[in-house]
């Protein structure tokens, strides 16, 4: 749903500002409860109508933006500086993940009509290739960013929500 991305885009910069003012602990708690409430409202909003459901999804996007930014802040303060070089190897894994996914999607774009099984296989393989991302993408992104990690993780969450 695009409204999850819109909700995350709207709240990304304000969330990072609030982290800098109040710290991640209180904000993460508030955003967690906010996301739980938005998720609990989904069945009720579906009964109310489609527009209410879309509003609840936008609220979930706002909570998602707050989660990713606070993750970046936590990782910065919980990891030793000696481990920073270890996480730069993640760039290799990210290159494999995203380049292979892009290559497979380009190949999938040339699948002729009537070959649905091949197209499904290629789409599955492209999503599977993102498994290389587990080399520490989120952690290394915030480690390299240092004091700017809440902002970087917020941007990562924005990219994730836009591409969903």
TrEMBL record:
Q: Which SUPFAM superfamilies match?
A: MFS general substrate transporter
Do the record's keywords include Zinc?
A: no
Annotated keywords: Membrane, Transmembrane, Transmembrane helix
Indicate what this protein is called per its UniProt record.
Major facilitator superfamily (MFS) profile domain-containing protein
Keyword hit for Thylakoid:
no
TM ranges? 26-46, 58-78, 84-111, 118-138
Superkingdom of origin: Eukaryota
GO CC term, one of those recorded: membrane
